[in-house]
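Appendix B. Raw example, untouched.
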Amino acid sequence: MFPHHREREQPIFSTRAHVFQIDPATKRNWIPASKHAVTVSFFYDSNRNVYRIISVGGTKAIINCIVTPSMTFTKTSQKFGQWADSRANTVYGLGFATEQQLHQFSEKFKEVKDAARLAREKSQDKELANTALNIAAPQSPPVMCVNGPEDKLFRSQSADITLSSEKERIKKMLSEGSICEMNLEAELFTLQDSNSKLVAALHEANANVEQWKKQLVAYQEETERLREQVADLEAHGGHGPSDLLKDELTQSLEELEALLKAKDEEIHILQSKKSEYHDMERERDQAIHRLREVEMRNSELERRIQNTEQNLSNSLDERDRLDTELQRAIEILDIKIFDLNDLRQSLVKLIDK
């Protein structure tokens, strides 16, 4: 079927770009549809009066999209743009080598969309003309008068429902991003609180370390003095204090050494806490980085919602315009029907005479 369409279609514009499609599972990430830049072309089918965007990668068509008046091509960066295809239930993205290529494709997209809108309006006018001809025939004119507008209204309401569902889906994505941002903010606040507590504990520990160092120096001096006294006592033999005093001095020396060992262990514990403080700082920096990424993602979602709301507004305006035109056509058809009825009655009267 694809080659058959290509035989009766004519290319009107071509460029090269990297093609992407939105991930159907997450609706957030882009999936490359081609390994390298491929040709992306606009084609016009004169038989069906239809415009299409086609791109072929190898032997497979990676883009086969019919351009409709409701589509909008959005530039999301200096070299990247995207549009949604509701028929394929996907979003296409194109990455260009230069800004000029992106601008040319965007302008051609607008021209083709306007041409598709004019083609649809001509098709609708043709349908109205065919409807009027069918009403002039003897077969049940009221049915043609009623079903035509209802069919147009049904299609308009279907487009409205599709746009509304797309808007709700994007709002849901934004709310999920906001929840993720709130969780990251809570995590950041917790890390900041823990960081402040660790900083205070570290300052206090540093002050205690300085104090303990001074005490340690004093204990060491006292130990050396006691050792010298013990050495003097041992040198003088029986001319010094008794063995009881020597035992007391030895015990005091052992207590001081045990206290010194305990202070060394406390210093090691404080040094390990200092390394934990550096780990907490690293975790805080990572949380700040994730929060910034979520904020960028939320700004992107807000921009997409604005575009969707704009598209919805344009679609509503288009639907109102179509409703007005349909109402005018209905009034014209009613007048034609009334004139035809008068003409038929006049012909009947002439025949009876």
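End of appendix B.
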